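For the sake of transparency, this paper describes our internal protein records without simplification. Because each token names a local backbone shape, the row as a whole describes the fold. One such record is reproduced below, unchanged from the form in which we store it:
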Amino acid sequence: MNILIVGNGFDLAHGLPTRYSDYVHQISEELDFKQYLGERYEIDEESYRLFIRVKKSTLFRYIEHRCEDGWVDFENELRLIVDDTSDFEKHLSRQSKKADDGLYNELLFWDSRVVKAKSSFLQMTLDSNGKGPWAGNEFNHVEDTIIQQIFDFISLFKKYIVWVNTVELPKKSPISLIDEIKIDHFLSFNYTPTFLKLYSSASALSQKNICYVHGRLDEDSNAPIVMGVGSDFYNADLNEYFLKTFKFYQRYKYCTDLNFLNWFKEIRVEYSWAPSGQADEEFNVYIYGHSLDPTDKDILLPFFETENANIVVYYFDENSRFSLEKNLLKILGQDTFCKYLIAQNPKIRFEKM
């Protein structure tokens, strides 16, 4: 059995512009993506309006500024935005003011010292939406504006990926290293159908052996996807108002694909109980273009822990290999890391792309 697990590096290896920074650049410079939306204006006017709305938003201007060296970690930036905004209200000064009806209302006032300690995004948001004072739940309007901008950004990104699938993907060819492997199960952290469109072994895969854990976009930009703050960062006491922006909640809400969980029933029957090297066939897991980010530990760890598994992690260069090794150490812990990698026949091997 051969399982292929891919992350965004798989799309990048095919020359697809699927980085968040690629998306931001297309909007900022109003390039081919905007032209594509413009050509479809008569049948999809809302998408074009969404483009304009996103480009003018505080969130986009902030992310655009954060695209240092042509790269941005959107999900980490989103985490900082959510944490700073969630934490901000408790630092507001509270004063009572007598209203015309003789009753006293509690007003919230911002403290410039607190704002300066927060992200520049929060400062930009207050500059755009007013700096108070806020009565009652009026500060929630600021939070609602931020949440709306986040989901507008995601909605336009989905349309961008559909554009990549429609315009860029047909120009690409398979990577021979992967095309030579007969893949039996396919798990993707991406939204694109790159493997299914370009690789010969994909045509033989049944739907139950295909899993898009964060959702899949082909030609329908309305399909739900998981795109937000890593689940490990959720603080119930702090982030409740922004719950919808966290991946674990999105997985639940959108009922995203969990086919891979059923694979382990088959794997356990076929491989787990067989003495090492005596199963009818090898059980191989190939990981291509995934950073092994610990936020995906809940999905990756069962593959690493399965008995008799041979794991191959592909890397681009020595710097990327070291980054992968550090993340793998976080997932496995020191003892298991040494057990799986320091052996005559290591369970996990690194191979250059």
